Amino acid sequence: MAESTIEWTDSTWNPITGCTKISQGCKNCYAERMAKRLKAMGQSNYVNGFKLSLHEHMLKKPLEWKKPRLIFVNSMSDLFHEDVPESFIEMTFEVMCKAHWHQFQVLTKRSKRLADLSLYIDWPDNVWMGVSVENEDNKFRIDHLRKTGANIKFLSLEPLLGSILDMNLDNIDWVIVGGESGPRSRPIREEWVLDIKNQCAQAGVPFFFKQWGGVNKKKTGRLLEGKTLNEFPHQVVSSIS
In angstroms, rounded to a whole number, what is the distance separating the alpha carbons of residues 96 and 104? Predict the structure, then answer.
């Protein structure tokens, strides 16, 4: 595991690395850029670069970390990737259940596989399950997420590439919004963000604005209408809020 600079978590844990692109939000994948850099640095878990790789030796790492943390699971991959065996997904959930003092944040774009497997998953209360939705075309992922047995369900609307109107936020516990960062980053519009913020307010769903993004995300910052919006799910108290 590693300390994270991601604004909505404390640490990352990557028993899987590497992925493949499935939708518009994947075009300028930050994890792909980082994996290539880590391979060049000689990091042993990245000898395959961004090719999907399972790291069974990493599975028990959260059990070694005794201080409670928010942990983003597979920030460098997708737990529900079609090439990840069901047995490995099961082992990952078993570890999250045993490490009950942590809160685990899982995020996927493979929402159909998530929905298909949900009935066979023993959902621990400390696992937050989320889907990435970058635009209207992928709003269907929210309905797949809603079908799961996860205690906390959240949306990551990042990189936000267009307006997402009239979302059904029933049984959704948290919404994160952010612009794309890094080279060739695509623009985000304030009106898209404000509309989503208003939808969350009307539905009583906590709203977290992560960043404006761009080539220099530190320069563009993360203020929305002059405020930093760091809301977290109502059921939990975050160590970083």
Answer: 7
